[in-house]
Task: structure prediction
Amino acid sequence: MSQTITQLQQLTEFLQTSLQGAIHTNNIDAWQERGTLHGIGDDRGQDGYAIAKWKYTAVIAIEKFPHRRVNPYNLLALISAFLIDSDWERDNFGLDDPEIEIDVVSKDDATIMIDVQLIDDIELIPNDNGPILFNGARYHVSLAPISIAENVDVDVKGQS
Result:
C-alpha cells in the first residue's frame, strides 16, 4: 500500500464529505506551508523503516461558506472531531491548536481560512528499483508492513 494520502488530504476529504451539499468541491482548497522534517530512522522490521515525520501547517480555504444556512460551529466541531479521531498525540509532537479566520463577504457567504498543524509519517520499504538509497539499499515511500502476533505461547515455570 503506497503512503500517498496525507493528514491534510484526509482532513480535506472529511470536510468535503461532511459538508456535502453545503459547499461545492471547487470552493475548498488545501495546501501545506512551513514544514519541518524530523528524521528518525526507526526500524519497523521486515526491512521497513519509519524514516521521518513531516510536521507542517496545513491551510484549508473554504469559499462561499453559507454561514447563515450552516452553523459555523458545525465546521469547528468537524475539525475538532477529525483531530481527536486521528489518534495523533498532538501534545507529544508540539502541534498547535488550529487557527481559523472567518471573513464574512456577504449576508449569506463567508470565506474561511483554517491553519492547522499536522504531522505525517514517511516510511520506506525495500524496492530494488526504488528512488531512495538508504543504508546501502534501495527503497520507495510506502507504509512499512507491521506483523501482529495472532497467538502467543507462554511457558511459565514455577519457582520452588
